[in-house]
Design the sequence.
């Protein structure tokens, strides 16, 4: 934009000043944009933000409100009628949904495993075990694959007459119906999820290690600390923020990104044993045409995530302080 | 860097085993895809006697993989361009400009990060239905942009914060207005971040199955990942062809990973550390 546009914006010189030198005029002109452009300048941040805000408002916050409101209305015959907490009561009577909540509990129990594996591996890579450079990229690669691809691959490996059972048979162990046994299937799906995602957490841990003060480790070594001692007294406290972050994101990942695996590997079966709230929502909405009930399940999922997130943050804070 | 020496080799063995466990499923799938059906039934583990590309051809021709590939490519490309455009505009405003309400608006964008898709999917499907956007490219693109925009804004904001204000002041003195600064300074300087965030977003959109399953119901509009799920039913007794279909869908991502793993990992790390 040409600078000369600023010319007319200069205030008339005060009456007492008669020396009105040109440099005097230059000062306000340089500092700010022209008066005509002033308003445009002030509005510019809002213009730049407008598309993003519009999309977020219309397609994220508005649906969130709509969904909560929706969860208090009826399905089918009672479409659009307010039904109070009926949907929620029905949800908690539904064995499928209760199973989904039980599986959330299972995820919470398995969470430390899902965090400890990448944490330990990142520690070893940071301490430069032989081949550490290679491991970083090898471990990370499943994280870029779609859950659908991962699920399909493990469907092949875990089929009843598939290679995994053939391997077990080779060492004299009976075949296991990995995806057909209600007591086993959920563990298998979670295991595959961990297999597919620990690389993400690993990279996050490594980023945390990059901020670690190496002299602390040297000091620990000089003092003759063992590896477990070093991890407990040096690494864990120093990486508390990273650990906290990984805990929360891993939990959120387990609650919200296993749909692809569930869809491909088990479709919620056998006997509804692999339902998670997210799969339940999709099933009620897409297959059974029960959007209001699905909205109630969505609201419950949202509350679970809030509680889990806040709880983890406060628990971890305390744990780290005591460590 | 410290070289701590505690039992390095003791640790190295399980790590190697795990690396093998990470890679083997894919190697297995590639091998199966190259085998004949008969060979697979006779021995699951044996190496393919020759490269039987015909499985790939069968998978490619059977369920309209080409069509799905085009759908996915178009939707992902447009989504990523819009994400980067809107994300960098917002990130520039939030990081470098001073204006009334900026911190509230930043909190709004951040809060959106904590609204998972599963929580809004039912009303979103209804909104899309009411506006005639279900089963259309624009509908799916909008859904992806809405889904990944908070993350994009967040990363672009933290990246742009690292650009010194002097550069922007100098550009202003040279006569640029805000939009000129965005176009001539922020966009070029933001290239590394745009690349990382763009690749991550492309991966997220490409790998998604839930959103496209929900918003693109008709067979013709399926994205590649939804297409793969329909292969399963069709080839339940022809595993090599099924594996070939899976491979076709995995190859683009694997190629990208081979070339850009650094950027991908950096993007993930940046998302974690900039918090």
Sequence:
């Amino acid at each position: 934009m040409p600078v000369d546009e600023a010319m007319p914006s200069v205030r008339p010189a005060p009456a007492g000043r008669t020396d009105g030198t040109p440099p005097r005029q230059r000062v306000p002109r340089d500092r700010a944009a022209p008066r005509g452009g002033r308003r445009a300048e002030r509005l510019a941040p809002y213009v730049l933000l407008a598309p993003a805000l519009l999309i977020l408002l219309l397609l994220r916050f508005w649906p969130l409100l709509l969904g909560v409101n929706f969860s208090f209305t009826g399905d089918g015959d009672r479409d659009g009628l307010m039904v109070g907490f009926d949907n929620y009561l029905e949800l908690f009577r539904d064995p499928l949904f209760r199973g989904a909540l039980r599986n959330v509990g299972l995820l919470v129990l398995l969470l430390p495993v899902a965090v400890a594996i990448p944490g330990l591996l990142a520690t070893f890579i940071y301490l430069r075990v032989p081949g550490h450079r290679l491991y970083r990229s090898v471990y990370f690669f499943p994280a870029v694959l779609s859950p659908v691809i991962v699920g399909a691959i493990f469907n092949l490996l875990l089929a009843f007459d598939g290679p995994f059972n053939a391997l077990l048979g080779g060492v004299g162990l009976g075949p296991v119906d990995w995806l057909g046994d209600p007591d086993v299937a959920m563990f298998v799906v979670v295991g595959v999820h961990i297999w597919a995602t620990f690389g993400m957490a690993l990279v996050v841990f490594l980023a945390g290690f990059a901020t670690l003060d190496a002299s602390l480790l040297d000091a620990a070594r000089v003092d003759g600390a063992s590896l477990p001692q070093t991890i407990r007294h040096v690494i864990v406290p120093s990486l508390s923020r990273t650990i906290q972050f990984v805990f929360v994101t891993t939990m959120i990942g387990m609650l919200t990104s296993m749909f692809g695996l569930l869809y491909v590997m088990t479709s919620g079966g056998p006997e509804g044993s692999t339902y998670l709230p997210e799969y339940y929502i999709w099933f009620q909405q897409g297959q059974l045409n029960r959007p209001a009930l699905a909205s109630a399940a969505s609201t419950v999922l949202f509350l679970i995530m809030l509680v889990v997130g806040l709880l983890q943050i406060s628990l971890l804070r305390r744990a780290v302080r005591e460590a | 860097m410290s070289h701590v020496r505690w039992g390095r080799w003791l640790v190295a063995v399980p790590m190697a085993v795990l690396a093998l466990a990470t890679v083997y499923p894919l190697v297995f799938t590639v091998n199966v895809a190259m085998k004949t059906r008969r060979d697979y039934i006779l021995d699951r583990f044996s190496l393919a006697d020759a490269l039987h590309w015909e499985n790939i051809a069968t998978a490619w021709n059977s369920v309209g993989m080409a069509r799905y590939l085009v759908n996915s490519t178009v939707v992902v490309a447009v989504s990523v361009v819009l994400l980067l455009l809107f994300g960098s505009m917002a990130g520039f405003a939030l990081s470098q400009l001073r204006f009334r309400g900026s911190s509230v608006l930043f909190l709004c964008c951040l809060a959106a990060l904590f609204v998972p898709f599963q929580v809004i999917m039912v009303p979103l499907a209804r909104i899309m239905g009411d506006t005639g956007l279900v089963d259309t490219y624009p509908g799916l693109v909008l859904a992806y942009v809405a889904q990944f925009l908070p993350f994009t804004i967040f990363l672009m904001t933290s990246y742009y914060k690292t650009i010194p204000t002097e550069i922007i002041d100098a550009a202003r003195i040279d006569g640029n207005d805000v939009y000129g600064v965005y176009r001539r300074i922020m966009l070029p300087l933001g290239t590394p971040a745009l690349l990382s965030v763009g690749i991550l977003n492309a991966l997220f959109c490409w790998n998604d199955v839930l959103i496209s399953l929900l918003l693109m119901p008709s067979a013709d509009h399926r994205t590649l990942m939804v297409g793969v799920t329909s292969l399963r039913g069709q080839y339940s007794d022809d595993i090599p062809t099924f594996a070939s279909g899976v491979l076709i869908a995995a190859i683009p991502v694997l190629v990208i990973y081979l070339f850009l793993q650094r950027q991908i990992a950096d993007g993930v790390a940046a998302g974690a550390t900039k918090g």
In short: Chain A is about 70% helix and 0% strand.
